[in-house]
Design a protein that fits this description.
With about 280 residues, the chain is of the alpha/beta class. The protein contains 5 helices and 28 strands. α2 runs parallel beside α4. It is elongated, with a radius of gyration of 21 Å. The C terminus is likely disordered.
Length: about 280
């Protein structure tokens, strides 16, 4: 292990011998750090925090500190970072506020400078937080989602898989998977670029477009639109899209730009005559 002489490692910490610990770094408490991790200058890792292998944590990042929650009263809680994560300068990630709960960052996540992950959040694999993105408590972010710079996300919001959040916006309600928002936090369409980059087939993209029109654009009552969408969803991605709307939500859904009840017949008629989702 290459540990700078000014670094501090608590006796209860477990650090793999292949790790590199930079100057003035502090590992305080029963922290566990996996193989080949690199901690830059003045990194602070606290509490019952577990960091998996091959993570790169840059200077002044703070991981596992107490949650910023007035209800928190010292309960035992955890923070877990997956493999191959990059955590850049001055990122903060707080441990959970509920007893025995965990703030969790998935594998391959990229958290850029000054981004913040609050207590009890769950980020799935390959999530990107651009500089200045702030997640309130209990936020759930699906895999491969991108939250752009200086975005604020309200507590208890869900952001779906492969969603793209426009920069300098406030997200106070759920964002469905595979969609993108503008700077006002309104849903403006599917994340076509993200879908293509992830190798989603043209047939699957076509199905998602059809489902997006039914649920987000046709202006039907939500119960009716979800019933129709469930009938049309043939692929796994399509079913994931519909399931997101059918799952419990504490915040409701972001506003859909372009929602217009006059589109109902133009959308429904061809869908009924032949499925464009195949």
């Amino acid at each position: 292990m290459r540990v700078h002489p000014t670094a501090y490692i608590h006796p209860d910490a477990t650090v793999h011998p292949s790790c590199k610990i930079g100057p003035n770094a502090v590992i305080d408490g029963p922290v566990r750090i996996g193989a080949n991790c690199q901690l830059g200058p003045s990194v602070v890792i606290m509490g019952h925090t577990e960091i998996a292998a091959d993570c790169s944590i840059h200077s002044h990042a703070v991981i596992g500190d107490k949650p910023q929650d007035k209800k928190y009263n010292g309960e035992l809680s955890f923070c877990r970072i997956g493999e191959r994560c990059v955590i850049r300068e001055s990122v903060t990630i707080h441990r959970a506020s509920i007893e025995l709960a965990t703030t969790e960052i998935g594998n391959g996540c990229y958290l850029m400078t000054n981004s913040h992950v609050a207590h009890d959040c769950h980020l799935e694999d390959e999530v990107t937080l651009v500089s200045g993105a702030l997640l309130g408590g209990h936020v759930h972010v699906g895999s491969n989602a991108v939250i752009s710079g200086n975005v604020g996300v309200h507590q208890h919001v869900r952001i779906g898989q492969l969603a793209m959040i426009g920069g300098v916006s406030m997200i106070s309600q759920d964002v469905p998977p595979f969609t993108m928002t503008d700077h006002q936090g309104e849903i403006i369409g599917l994340n076509a670029v993200g879908l293509a980059l992830k190798g989603i087939s043209p047939a699957e993209q076509q199905e998602l477009k059809a489902l997006f029109k039914v649920i987000c654009r046709a202006g039907m009552p939500q119960r009716r639109s979800l019933e129709l969408a469930a009938e049309l969803a043939n692929t796994q991605l399509g079913r994931q899209f519909v399931d997101f709307f059918q799952a419990e939500t504490r915040r409701g859904f972001c506003r859909f730009r372009g929602r217009n009840s006059r589109l109902q017949q133009s959308i429904l008629t061809p869908l009924k005559q032949q499925s464009i989702c195949k």
